[in-house]
Design a protein that fits this description.
Number of helices: 25
Helix content: 40-55%
Structural class: alpha+beta
Shape: elongated
Distance between the termini: 36 Å
Largest sheet: 13 strands, mixed
Strand content: 15-25%
Number of strands: 26
Radius of gyration: 34 Å
Length: about 800
């Protein structure tokens, strides 16, 4: 019986080639898009799950109030001694590990004549390898202070085919480290990424500020007993913190545990160095995949039900000779299944073809392994789901035909399914219009983010990270550069303007420090405000003419003045602990961070020495150049660097490029939505084209009669087009409020964002209307220009 069903299905596919092509192409595109997106979603959800102990590992978070309104924020940085105390005093804790990834800080690593900057550097306690699943394939874990382990790729980079165990790497020309082990390359779906791993004792030795209970500066991971009560452990950790740090007396300060597998999809933590994504993008991409699959399935349903009359006599004959409704249903489900299988095979080929491009767009390294059991299971699930979505209604609809009415010829084409087809077309285009509106609004917000006036100039500003002699001989470096007229200005800073180095608590005179303002502490050199074209609304900048500027003066921004409630800030004293500083200037508020966040209060101190207090670890020199003679300016920087700092390779970066990186996820999302929106519109238009073709075919006699009676081509085109265009207009009316609701919620995540204008909806509506009209016109013009004599003779 099933063999018979397949034979009939193949014959029908061959007989109705145009409609088969439209159905298969639409389904294949929809399935391919859905598979690509689901590969991305699965990859995002897989982070850190490769660890054998993933279900019992947690990262320590500290929650604390910030600002006058006591807004609760969370950070993954906790006091370093908490790790050992938790293991000793909380029974549920099996192991505790301190782990620090050093962020974007670049270290010079040398082996013989091979010299490279490395960024993926971390330090940990030796128990890290017991807690996490990073297998050592050669050697041993770092046990001594100067021991390190490296990844396979890094071992090959420095040592080639040599055995790396026991080899010594020169670190920043001041310390030697011995390679004791080689580990497998870190999986891409790990939130912890490193190429070099040192013993945590080195971290404590290098960090100048200490590791006391009052310093919240290090990530800690805990492994708990199976079935441990996490809320109870949170309570014990909070009590432990307050026991050893009595100054923590605010009831809003709490210690809590974050599951390891939640880290990658938890954005918004303060000073989190892990590579994280916002969970909302999982939902956005999943909805896009579902939208496109639904649009493709709607095509199938519409064309199948529309052409039902062409198969009505076949169904009537089958039922007359004894076929049951279930057998007819099975036959048409089989046809749907066959069509979905063919579409799926084409979709797999499309995924293989376009996966490299998708990886480039999404910044991923996704692999589509068709032999993988999980992939096979997903493909089978998609085939069954698509078969049911696309084939169930047509099969039910066709199998219920009354054989007597069918054989009498009383079943009209589309009589019972016209309303459904209309609603499905409206649904289909509504989904497409929502995607179009989302695309426009995301693009507008991105343009706003990258072009908003920030209060400083980021164009034609380059920066170089401070290395070795450059910090010690900064004045000589500056003097050398300013000889070139294409170097307009330069200044030193403790860290990039787009990043935060340290927070401190300040209070005005007569106010308790505990009731002061939590404020960002910024260290800058002379000419910093001039180099970035920052505006001082009151007072002056730091100057060499005033000897006390280097030790006793500060500059605050307008937000700090507002939060401290200072009416006349110039000359007022501000206190950090018991140390007082005099305000000499007020900086106009500038947006240095992502526009997700509001402007924070800032206090600027004179940066007296780039090698002081460990600032050389992160310090940068900002250089304003003449954009018209960029190459001359860059050559001058290289010349000065090579003369003063020959042992360190020069790095030059542009500040505007670094600032634009703040919106990498948004740009990726915008690009991906653009492509999938185009595909959604294409699939919708394929279905519309098929329905118009069917309508023209069914009304061929009517069109011939109208032409004989004098109807023009434009009259015929208008007659065939108006109902389809009406449906697209209704789709716009439905889609607009839905798109506004979704995008308005998305924009709320930004502290600064565009306003949604009415004309955006009008543009989207006109665009989709024109696309639909073009699609309809292609087929209606062909039908309207057909020779009526041939049409009527054929009829």
């Amino acid at each position: 019986m099933f063999k018979n069903y397949f034979k009939i299905a193949l014959r029908n596919l061959n007989r109705q080639r145009t409609y088969s092509f439209i159905n298969i192409t639409g389904l294949a595109l929809g399935l391919a898009c859905s598979m690509l997106i689901m590969l991305w979603v699965q990859d995002e959800l897989s982070f850190d799950k490769f660890n054998e102990n993933a279900d019992s590992i947690y990262r320590v978070l500290v929650q604390y109030p910030e600002g006058d309104n006591n807004k609760l924020v969370e950070t993954p940085h906790a006091p370093s001694p908490l790790a050992q105390a938790a293991k000793d005093e909380i029974p549920e804790v099996i192991e505790a590990v301190r782990m620090e990834v050093w962020g974007n800080k670049k270290e010079l690593i040398k082996y013989n004549d091979k010299v490279f900057y490395e960024t993926a550097i971390a330090s940990c306690d030796p128990l890290f390898f017991k807690m996490f699943s990073f297998p050592i394939i050669k050697g041993r874990i770092p046990a001594e202070k100067n021991d390190i382990v490296i990844t396979e790729d890094l071992a090959h980079k420095y040592f080639g085919d040599e055995n790396p165990i026991g080899k010594v790497l020169n670190w920043n020309n001041w310390q030697l480290f011995k390679v004791t082990g080689v580990i497998s390359n870190i999986p891409h779906n790990s939130h912890i990424q490193f190429n070099i791993l040192t013993n945590y004792d080195n971290e404590e030795k290098a960090w100048p500020y200490g590791f006391s209970w009052s310093m919240f500066n290090r990530p800690i991971y805990l492994q708990l007993q199976k079935n441990a009560n996490v809320q109870e452990v949170n309570r014990k950790l909070t009590e432990l913190l307050k026991k050893y740090n009595p100054k923590v007396n605010n009831p809003l300060i709490k210690v809590m545990l974050q599951p390891l597998t939640d880290i990658h999809l938890t954005a918004g933590l303060v000073n989190d160095r892990a590579e994280v994504k916002d969970k909302k993008y999982i939902y956005i991409y999943s909805f896009i995949a579902l939208f496109i699959l639904l649009i493709a399935c709607i095509n199938f349903i519409n064309l199948s039900t529309a052409r039902s009359i062409n198969r009505a006599r076949e169904i009537g004959l089958r039922k007359t000779i004894g076929a049951s409704r279930s057998q007819v249903f099975t036959q048409y489900i089989t046809e749907s299944f066959l069509m979905v299988c063919i579409s799926q095979l084409i979709a797999i080929a499309l995924v293989e073809l376009f996966l490299p491009t998708f990886n480039a767009l999404a910044g991923k390294k996704l692999i589509f392994d068709i032999l993988n059991i999980n992939v096979v299971a997903e493909v089978v699930a998609i085939i069954l789901l698509a078969s049911l979505l696309a084939g169930s209604y047509p099969a039910l609809y066709l199998s219920r035909f009354n054989p007597i009415r069918v054989l009498k010829g009383s079943v009209k084409a589309g009589t019972n399914s016209a309303a459904l087809r209309k609603s499905l077309i409206i649904t289909q285009f509504s989904l497409s219009i929502i995607l179009v509106l989302s695309t426009i609004l995301v693009a507008q917000q991105l343009h706003y983010l990258t072009n908003k006036k920030l209060g400083f100039v980021k164009e034609n500003i380059v920066y170089v990270p401070v290395k070795d002699n450059i910090g010690k001989k900064y004045d000589l470096f500056k003097e050398h550069l300013l000889k070139n007229p294409n170097i307009l200005s330069l200044a030193s800073k403790d860290i990039l303007p787009t990043e935060s180095f340290a927070q401190t608590r300040i209070a005005k005179q007569g106010q308790n420090t505990e009731k002061g303002v939590n404020i960002e502490r910024v260290g800058v050199g002379y000419d910093y405000f001039k180099t970035l074209d920052l505006t001082l609304t009151q007072g002056r900048a730091f100057s060499k003419e005033y000897s006390t500027d280097a030790t006793d003066a500060i500059i605050v921004n307008e937000e700090a003045v507002r939060q401290l409630e200072l009416s006349s800030p110039i000359g007022k004293k501000i206190y950090v602990g018991k140390r007082g500083y005099t305000i000499i200037g007020v900086l106009k508020d500038a947006l240095f961070r992502s526009l997700y966040n509001k402007i924070e209060p800032q206090v600027y101190f004179k940066l007296s020495d780039l090698t002081n207090n460990g600032i050389n670890l992160y310090g940068v020199i900002l250089i304003k150049i003449n954009g018209k003679n960029e190459q001359s300016a860059l050559a001058s920087i290289k010349e000065a660097w090579d003369e003063i700092n020959p042992t360190y390779p020069l790095e030059i970066h542009f500040l505007n490029e670094r600032y634009n990186q703040l919106y990498g996820s948004e740009k990726q999302t915008s690009t991906i939505i653009n492509y999938f929106t185009l595909l959604a519109i294409l699939i919708s238009c394929l279905g519309l084209f098929g329905l118009v073709s069917f309508t023209a075919e069914q009304r061929a006699k009517e069109i011939g009669v109208r032409k004989v009676l004098g109807a023009t081509v434009s009259d015929i085109v208008m007659m065939l087009s108006k109902s389809f265009i009406k449906w697209v207009i209704i789709a716009n009316i439905i889609a607009w409020p839905v798109a506004w609701f979704l995008m308005n919620n998305w924009l709320k995540d930004f502290a600064y964002h565009i306003n949604i204008s009415w004309w955006i909806f009008l543009i989207a509506g006109i665009s989709t209307l024109l696309i639909a009209l073009l699609t309809v016109s292609i087929q209606t013009v062909r039908a309207a220009t057909a020779n009526p004599v041939k049409t009527l003779r054929y009829e």
